[in-house]
Amino acid sequence: MALPHASKGNNVCEICGKIYSSKTNLRIHSYIHANEKPYVCETCNRAFTQKDSLKIHIRTHTKEKPYVCEVCGKAFSRKESWRKHTLIHSDLKPYVCNVCHKAFSQNSNLKTHLRTHTAEKPYTCDMCGKAFRIKITLQTHLLIHANIKPFTCEICYAAFTQNNQLKSHLRTHTNERPHVCEICGKAFAQKSSLQKHYWSHTNEKPYKCDFCPKAYSWKDKFKRHQLIHLKEAVPS
């Protein structure tokens, strides 16, 4: 495929109409249309249309991270990733949800948030079919099937698939209860336990029996109740 050339006066791409400040930049751009990739990585032979793209790629091999956050010290291999990160410290949140108006510092976080409104779960487990909104949640879930438990308690050596499970478990040793009810002052080790406790104040009973009108605030009580119907269904 012939490379597009600069027109007189302006360096304009004849294929897509983009304008460049120099003939050199136009020629580099033209590689995209010609599907030419003259810059090749000597380590893995991956090829790129631009020299800068090759430089960034090489950092995946060298682990070089030249862009360092002055606030927290976190380092990045790409300047664009560093710029997005700095928004966290600046409190700038330019990406706003058009449904609930919640704002985010990064576009990727907004995209993930939008799935709470659409109920979209694009990441599906190939083993059990369970779907997730976030890729990292799927990756953590896969540890269950692989029976991998990388997070170990240093006190009793109980192992867990997730770090937050280990944190919750450690409170059984420290007796720490950071989640406090604002109504009665009762404290809980886990946030989920506090949320369930609130139902005792609101009289909310989300666990409803399919066989009779009874409803329960606690899942374990609901399960025990279900056993009554199961026993009735089984002939003696």
UniProtKB/TrEMBL annotation:
Any one GO cellular component localisation term in the record: nucleus
InterPro entries: Zinc_finger (IPR050331), Znf_C2H2_sf (IPR036236), Znf_C2H2_type (IPR013087)
Gene Ontology MF term list: zinc ion binding
Record's keyword terms, sorted: Metal-binding, Nucleus, Repeat, Zinc, Zinc-finger
Domain annotation C2H2-type: ranges: 11-38, 39-66, 67-94, 95-122, 123-150, 151-178, 179-206, 207-234
Entry keyword annotation includes Transport: no
Pfam family of the protein (one): zf-C2H2
Compartment annotation: Nucleus
One BP annotation, GO: regulation of gene expression
Record carries keyword Flavoprotein: no
Protein name: Zinc finger protein 112
Provenance organism: Araneus ventricosus (Orbweaver spider)
Phylogenetic classification of the source organism: Eukaryota, Metazoa, Ecdysozoa, Arthropoda, Chelicerata
Gene designation per UniProt: ZNF112_108
